[in-house]
Design brief:
Blueprint: E1 2-6, E2 27-28, E3 31-32, H1 35-43, E4 48-53, H2 58-65, E5 74-79, H3 88-92, H4 94-97, E6 102-106, E7 109-112, H5 116-123, E8 130-136, E9 144-148, E10 154-159, E11 168-176, H6 180-186, H7 197-206, E12 210-214, E13 220-223, H8 227-244, H9 251-257, H10 263-271, H11 277-288
Parallel strand pairs: 1-4, 1-6, 4-5, 8-12
Antiparallel strand pairs: 2-3, 6-11, 7-13, 8-11, 9-10
Length: 289
Amino acid sequence: MKGIVLAGGSGTRLYPLTRAVSKQMLPVYNKPLIYYPLSVLMLGRIRNILIISSPQHVNAFRGLLGDGSRLGLNIEYAEQPEPNGIAEALVIGAEFIGNDPVTLVLGDNVFHGPGFGRLLQAESRDVDGCVLFGYAVADPERYGIGEVDGDGRLVSLEEKPARPRSDLAITGLYVYDNNVVDVAKNIRPSRRGELEITDVNRVYLEQGRARMVNLGRGFAWLDTGTPDALLQASQFVQTLEQRQGVRIACLEEISFRMGFIDAGACYELGSQMSQMDYGRYLMEIAHQN
């Protein structure tokens, strides 16, 4: 399984914050936003990851994450010259994907919930078709909405429906079999010239090979595309971390917990930041284990 983080776009809804800085580099409490979608792939035991960003921002991600080896990962980079739709990530990443299935996650989405890693691992194992992840929302007319049958099979997809058939919004996390590269290459661009991910998902729907997993109560899904949403995500992470004494989307800890690096490597990463709580937290975790 390969993983792609789409960290492109112009971030216009966050101007002036994003006039010179990538949206995915903005802080969500105490970490860059991109740590959160990257942690999703890691929790799914995905270690080969492609980060796609705009030409003016891609080097910033290289400076932050490097080749991923310190985290036990292999991270590669590609450019999306213009924000031409989510599905374009699958075309840009075609060579990287090769003959493997792929999990695509949007770079401005935050996910958190109990057992999330086990869920991702189970749903990405031997995937045949596509797996989407739904989240119940109070205002479904503002989202792409999926309707499922009793077995979780997707039966309809609607973009911002006036009369929604369900309250399950389709989140920015998608798991596909290898056929998705050909599907993405053959869909027609929208009137705006974009390759829409909904059109990719609709192909699988028409083939009867699309499922949607309801994340359910107890999970959190946050889209940080506006200043208010970015602040709310920071407050959410701050509250959980301070009350529970654990870190959310701490990449170094996840690498250690998943067995990508050993305790010594985790301790060394923490010692490089030993003047900060973040570093001391890593050192304590490594010491305990």
